[in-house]
Fold each of these.
Amino acid sequence: MNNNNKRCPLGLSALLTLLLAVVAPVFAQQDPTPAPPASAPSSVPWSSLSPQQQKLLSRFGDQWNNLPPQRQQALAHGSQRWLGMSPEERGLARQRFNQWHSLPPDQREALRQRWQRFQSLPPGEQAAVRQNYRRFEQLPPEQRKTLRERWHNATPEERQEMLQRGREMRMKRQQQHAQHMQMPRPGRSPR
């Protein structure tokens, strides 16, 4: 990250949301799966953790019973995910974690809020965000840079227009795909 720039250089909510989606659960900054609203989270007994989890979370051992149940659950879940990762995945997670910690607190808070907004989206919209991110990542670097700059320099109204155009284009592609799937294929009789 460029420390000379106080604003986030990426500018695209989807890109940042996905970065947070990978980083936050791995390191248990917050629990990505909220508890049912009617029940309070239950505490996780230290003895219920595997020996590997206890070793990984040893710095919390003395204070474990004083941690809020939600934090205990997040740490237990994060340690379980960590132990299930390959060495390559752990290396990437460490790299993303270091990037996360190099961000100023206000940017981390903005990312947390975006993550929460993403989590509150219906599954179809989450899938659309992920698909848009994959498309963005497939663009040539110069085109990605241009799009980031356009987004970064846009007014809130212009950003809303960009988002609306994107939704319209996505709907048009979905309609075209549906029409294409309904067309009879050569050599086959229509259904």
Amino acid sequence: MKINYKRIISDKSYCEKAFKGFVSKKIIREDKYRLFQKHIHKAVNNMDFANFILAEHDGAIKKKLAGREYYDWCIIIYYYAAYHAALALLSKAGYESKSHAATITAVTLFFYHKDNILEKKDIDFLINNFSLERKEIEFVLDSKEMRERACYGADETFNQTQANLIREGAAELITKIRTKLSLQ
């Protein structure tokens, strides 16, 4: 299902329709296992590993792999850290997702538009106690685009500045989600 990411932010009814489409196609479905804590744990692990790789550019990578850079992998790992934080939010609301587009749509609907279309106790809690700002939704979208270029692009180079930008955004998003969900 093709999604206009900018429109899911600006048009609540479009976002709701897209969400319902994902549910009807079973791309988003009930999360029977409630894996939100595991997703947060994975988000933190990914942050730790990406931070390690980023720091090693000035250490072991410089010494053992002179002239090589792995900033593209840092970007990819940071994106997945943010993505697992988004999956944690979706799980807390009682759902799981099989696609990035579906996850971003659901998180935007529940935590940006603050619409309680599903009437679940957990969603009420999240709607009343948590909201994502436009800049955070846009961070996930922008980092998704950069992750795709880093994963699939052969002619692009990435640098430490780009990796640091993704790192800062992912860290901010994960911290906010962990704080609001009391998952310290």
Amino acid sequence: MTYPDRFVFLQQLSTWRGRKTAWGLKLLLGRYPAPSRALLDQVASSYHRSDELGDRVAEELFSNPQLRERGIHPHQLLKKAVEEGSDILDDTTPALREMLQQAETPPLWLEQEKLTLACEVIHRSGRFAMYALGDFALLGGYANSDIIKPLAFTGALNGNSSFDRVSETTSFWFDVTTPGGLEPGSAGYSSAVKVRVMHALVRQSLLKHPQWNSEQWGLPINQGDAVATNVAFSMMMIAGLAMLGWRLNDRELEAVLHLWRYVAYLMGDDWTLLPVNRQQGVDWLYIIALGSRVNPDQDCLELAHSYLEAFREVPGNRFYQSYVYWFHRAYANWFIPADIRRVLSIPKAPLLSLLPVLQFPFIRLLDVLAHRIPRVDRWLQRFGRSGQQFIVSSRLQGRDVTFADKGTMVR
């Protein structure tokens, strides 16, 4: 098949960057990437596929004259239905009922034991999991202008919006990694379903935008970008943790992949494309690294700058805010390859860049002890989760997260 311009995997495969990435993954995660041509074809075609049921729900809720005539607010109805269940809905919202009935029915492949283990693994790594997600997966992803276009058009992570939106994403991540958090009606489950509808609303708005170029970028928030984002939450987090000294065995790694596969199921993403084991996870990291164009434009540079500058807004005095800013700058320099840092104009962090290096042997020791001594593992889980809770609470400051489309466009 003919691949879209934005999917450059085959062009990058034989380059120095391609070979360097392959051996880097082998050293870091123990597998040499070898994605199949069938998977590459599926990824290439996914940029022009969307969550069709989610689109129908968005259209039904926000363009339904019956709801308007009855004075029903779409967001309030969605919130009530997600939290109380599909049984409260009548025949005026068949698509919403179908979506919720699907979400309320666990897939046959779901294993609760793996969800529990995934939460334990993520809790053990504490704040470091959040550093890997933000300073590696999110910030490094800004080098690809194709995937960030919805953010650039809506202004979701630009300037003053950056702190709030990253805080909301952090809250979402915390909710879905809470034990039992993906049970119907729970916080993680509700967040995933609400985000699904919010994505559909943004997609509808952008498809009507005169400047949106589907031929070049694919559909807004398409299946390819959604699945890549899911892999960022799972495998890129795992890779980032490995760079800091944490090591997940195959059972733990597969549990984390299982959790995020279920999150994808709830969010209307194509979970059938997602990895289920270490080899498939490495293959996916390779596809993301080589398949995405490194083509940052002004939007990318603004997003990268806004991400780091947002840490100057964390609650606390000016000294603490400056410390947090430099701390994340140091981690970004540790995680992100030099060529990506250069094109994104990520500033260096002299001396402080040594922090992850100095932490590595201590983290490695803690990880080894946790795998051998259950009491240490339980303590690390409690300590790590309290650290994650602190970050979420300090960023939200009691603010409720609705995951509703803000309806903003900056262009």
